[in-house]
From TrEMBL:
Pfam families: Rad1. GO terms for cellular component: checkpoint clamp complex. Its main location: nucleus. GO terms for biological process: DNA damage checkpoint signaling; DNA repair. The lineage of its organism: Eukaryota, Metazoa, Spiralia, Lophotrochozoa, Mollusca. InterPro entries: Cell_cycle_checkpoint_Rad1, DNA_clamp_sf, Rad1_Rec1_Rad17. Signal peptide: none annotated. The keyword DNA damage applies. This is Cell cycle checkpoint protein RAD1. It comes from Lottia gigantea. Belongs to the rad1 family. It is found in: Nucleus. Keywords: DNA damage, DNA repair, Nucleus.
Length: 152
């Protein structure tokens, strides 16, 4: 896109490069398509994230109606790490799992969520039938109001 601006006899030529995507990403995360959902205390996940091997390129999330129920794994230069959570754990407030699902996500895309995790008291982790991930953080602000930050 090219255009020219003129203000007080000063002319500025402007050019903005634009990109037309080949395909539009589908962020349609419909609650009716959610297969698995876990709500847990953020404190627990903060500890797990500090123990994960962040040199790994991927974080594997497994949710299952059977043992181990909820599992986070990384595979990096320092080896592999794995954290398992029982659905009956004190840290798990709600566990709804209809189908065993194992999905891998790029850690580089999840790193920005760590800032929200540090401020949150609870987290909802949901996956739909495509393996699409939704992380919803419950944060209480200084006034005591509850707000939510959501990442897809």
């Amino acid at each position: 896109m090219y255009f020219r601006l003129e203000e007080d006899s000063v002319i500025t030529d402007c050019s903005i490069k634009t990109l037309e995507p080949d395909e539009v990403l589908d962020f349609d995360f419909c609650s009716t398509n959610v297969l698995n959902k876990i709500i847990m205390k953020a404190k627990c996940l903060k500890e797990v994230f500090s123990e994960l091997d962040m040199t790994s390129e991927i974080l594997q999330i497994m949710m299952s109606p059977d043992t181990p129920y909820f599992q986070l794994s990384t595979f990096g230069n320092a080896g592999s790490t794995q954290s398992d959570f029982s659905k009956d754990s004190d840290m798990v407030e709600s566990f709804q799992c209809t189908k065993t699902q194992t999905n891998r996500y790029k850690i580089s895309l999840l790193k920005p969520t760590v800032k929200a995790l540090a401020q949150s008291s609870r987290i909802s982790i949901r996956t739909d039938n495509r393996g699409f991930l939704s992380l919803q953080y419950m944060i209480k602000n200084e006034d005591g109001q509850v707000c939510f930050v959501e990442f897809y």
